[in-house]
Design a protein that fits this description.
4 helices, 93 residues, globular
């Protein structure tokens, strides 16, 4: 059971990290620093999502990172992700 929980938490952490990179890339584009984009192979998709304020995107990255920290402290994964979802929803409304 512990091994399953560790594997699940690692997978969720990886997914959150990827989401954080996506928001970071969007912020880099908004700031005019396209050369810093991690997902340069997804430039067209990133451009389609561009247009949000960079400060809002940065706040989204911070919310994702806070969730990753919480997961390392053994909080309930479902509740942590739900809280993150509400946080991101309120940011991008």
């Amino acid at each position: 059971r512990r091994a399953f929980r560790r594997a699940s938490t690692r997978a969720l952490d990886t997914q959150l990290q990827l989401a954080g990179h996506w928001f970071r890339d969007l912020a880099c584009i908004e700031w005019g620093a396209g050369e810093l984009v991690y997902n340069s192979d997804r430039a067209e998709k990133l451009a389609a999502y561009a247009g949000r304020p960079a400060t809002t995107l940065r706040t989204g990255v911070e919310a994702i990172e806070q969730t990753r920290v919480r997961l390392s402290l053994n909080v309930n994964e479902e509740l942590a992700c739900e809280a993150l979802g509400y946080s991101l929803e309120s940011l991008f409304r």
